[in-house]
């Protein structure tokens, strides 16, 4: 009997996050600024992260971009951070892409929040509400920040965040 043809592998989905600030991402990094993205893959059943960074460890996945690198931290505090290589920043825009499988078992939606802070984790700006995005391919959701920051904090003043589910 002929061997059955192997089934093609499932497409690997990616989460693409774009953050726009009023100033310049690079200037913020040079000034010891840190850009955080909190992620809750249990978006349907548990509330997502808020702007209190101290509550994220052990509760949520999060991405930390500082002047040295960009890492994904697991909610399992004993796990080593994953270095993210698919990120870029140019002018006022930061883009990060990573595999959804890096977030473990997913519900049907993910909560995402963006926070900017200094090197002591004192928060400059944040999205008022989490962006809740369905894990269905090609879904796009946006969030804005209406926090009013001083003009000299423009590198950390979040204007908009866009989250999209893509395939490779």
What does this structure look like?
With 168 residues, this protein is mainly beta. It has one helix at residues 25-30; strands at residues 13-21, 34-40, 61-65, 70-73, 82-83, 87-90, 93-99, 109-117, 123-126, 131-134, 140-144, 158-167. The strands form two sheets. Strands 2, 3, 4, 5, 8, 9 and 10 form a seven-stranded antiparallel beta sheet that branches.
List the helices and strands and how they pair.
Elements: E1 13-21, H1 25-30, E2 34-40, E3 61-65, E4 70-73, E5 82-83, E6 87-90, E7 93-99, E8 109-117, E9 123-126, E10 131-134, E11 140-144, E12 158-167
Antiparallel strand pairs: 1-7, 1-12, 2-3, 2-8, 3-4, 4-5, 6-7, 8-9, 8-10, 11-12
Features:
mainly beta, 7-stranded antiparallel beta sheet, 4% helix, 1 helix, 5-stranded antiparallel beta sheet, 168 residues
Uncertain regions spanning at least 5 consecutive residues: none
Give the radius of gyration: 17 Å
Secondary structure class reads mainly beta
Pattern of helices and strands: EHEEEEEEEEEEE
The first-to-last residue Cα distance is 35 Å
Overall pLDDT confidence: 90
Question: Which percent bin holds the helix content?
Answer: under 10%
| Largest beta-sheet characterization | 7 strands, antiparallel
Q: How many E-type strands?
A: 12
Report the principal-axis shape. globular
Characterize the quaternary organization of these chains.
Answer: single chain
Beta-strand content: 35-45%
Number of helices: 1
């Amino acid at each position: 009997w002929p061997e059955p043809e192997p089934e093609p592998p499932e497409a690997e989905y990616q989460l693409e996050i774009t953050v726009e600030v009023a100033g310049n991402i690079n200037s913020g990094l040079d000034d010891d600024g840190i850009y955080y993205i909190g992620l809750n893959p249990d978006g349907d059943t548990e509330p997502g992260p808020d702007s209190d960074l101290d509550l994220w460890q052990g509760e949520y996945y999060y991405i930390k971009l500082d002047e040295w690198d960009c890492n994904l931290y697991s909610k399992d505090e004993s796990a080593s951070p994953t270095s993210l290589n698919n990120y870029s920043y140019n002018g006022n825009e930061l883009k990060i892409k990573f595999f959804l499988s890096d977030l473990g078992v997913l519900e049907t939606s993910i909560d995402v929040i963006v926070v900017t802070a200094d090197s002591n984790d004192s928060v400059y700006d944040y999205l008022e509400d989490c962006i809740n995005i369905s894990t269905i391919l090609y879904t796009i959701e946006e969030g804005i920040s209406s926090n009013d920051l001083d003009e000299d904090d423009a590198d950390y003043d979040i204007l908009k965040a866009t989250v999209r589910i893509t395939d490779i």
